[in-house]
Amino acid sequence: MKRQDGFTIIEVTLFLAVSGFFAISLLVGASTAVQRQQYRDSVQSFANYLRSQYSQVINVENDRNFGKCPIGGGDTNRGQSECVILGRYIETAAGVDNTGDRYQSYPVYGLYSKAGSSWKYALGESASYQVNWGAKTKLANSNTNISMLMYRDPESGGLQVKLFNSRFSNTNISKAFSDSTVSDNEICVYDDGWMSGERLSVFLPQRAGSADAITVGNARGCSNG
After folding, report:
1. What is the DSSP secondary structure assignment for residue 180, as one 8-state letter?
2. Three-state DSSP class for 86?
């Protein structure tokens, strides 16, 4: 009897099964790599956002011909009196849940009152920021709101960063300057994906001489979301 060349049904089935297994493995591996890269990009983008905010504090310009002081009726140009921009106030956006995926930032104005021998503070117009790729943020060892004050001390000229687990408003922003109950300097960045494979945080030193002092590193006080 003449032998016929070819594959049996069992051999073809095994070939298809093995090929399918390798194809699925490649797809899962590619998806994991993409998600991991997106997560890292979101962390770096968030860190760059905070660095840009801090750079505005370090390199603030109090132009004599731009804008009105929002303190004391707003009749005085900045730079023509003791009214100056002292820093930036940043917080998780109000009206949303505590996932920390959206932020609002404000310039912080200060006006020295000779009558009271003290400083008055107010917030300017806000600007929005959205964390990339659906990533979320929270303070280390906390699941509450995030707010931070980056400023140059009007008396000493020293730079300082304060992180809080509560929000401030235009009416009580002065409390942020005097509040000494500062939270950890670690902001955790996380997502809901089960394949990201790592947890990173952004660290903000309380006293940093440059924006480059805001760094990204392995998470310390963070849990998975």
Report:
1. -
2. strand
Q: Are 149 and 176 in contact (CB under 8 A)?
A: yes
Distance CA 54, CA 161 (A): 9
Domain layout of the chain by residue ranges: 34-218
Measured distance CA(184)–CA(176) in Å, rounded: 15
| Residue with token string 């070819």 | 6
Please give the pLDDT value at position 73.
53
Closest by CA to 137, choosing from 195, 190, 192, 183, is 190
Q: Which two tokens stand for residue 73?
A: 């009726």
% helix, strand, coil for the chain, step of 5: 25, 30, 45
Question: What pTM was estimated for this model as a whole?
Answer: 0.81
Spell 18-51 as b/e; 16+ CB within 10 A means b.
eeeeeeeeeeeeeeeeebeebbbebbebbbebbb
> Between the ranges 22-31, 35-44, 112-121, where is the mean pLDDT highest?
35-44
Q: Which of 96, 100, 88 is nearest to 139 (CA)?
A: 100
